[in-house]
Structure formats: C-alpha cells, structure tokens
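--- STAGE predict ---
source: upstream dedup step, 1 unique chain passed
mode: sequence only
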Amino acid sequence: YYLIAPEMEFSHGYCDFFLLPNYAVYPMVKHSYILELKYLKADATDVDAKRQWSEAVEQITSYAADKKLQSMLHGTQLHPIVVQIKGYDAIRIEEVGGGK
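--- STAGE serialize ---
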C-alpha cells in the first residue's frame, strides 16, 4: 500500500522513513506516515532520554510542516511518529502533533 522512502529531506533535515501511499495502485489509502527513530545506549539516563525525546519531537514537527512534504500528501492524514529505543527495548512510541 505504501512507497517507503528512507532519509527524505524535509526542512533541512532527513526523516528516517516516509511512508507515502501508492496512489496509482491504492487510491483508497487515507493516511501517510513519517517515522523518526532514536537510539539510546542501554546505560543512558532518564535525563538523556527526555532530552533526546524533546529533540526528536521538535525535529519531526519541523519535517511535518515542510511544504514539500505537505504537497506530497494528496489529502491523506499525516501521522508523525517517534520511536525511542534504549538498548534492545522500544521504550517509547508515540504519534506527535495533530497530523493534517
């Protein structure tokens, strides 16, 4: 259902993954996704995790507002998602911002 584009440039940065509906084949798809993946070493502190999370939210919010990205949505609802991994565990996964 999706064309997956890693490291697409938006707002002078690179989102980790952009999942864009394959409109030509699946015109019924109503959602698009950008994913930002963040990794922490296993011994990272809670302060490190909070700081990294805040930076990731700021980063993905900037990408979501990018005019180039917005023009690629074709009316789909955008879901900006941040995934934070510590060691081998996903410790936080959230959709941030309201999407459009």
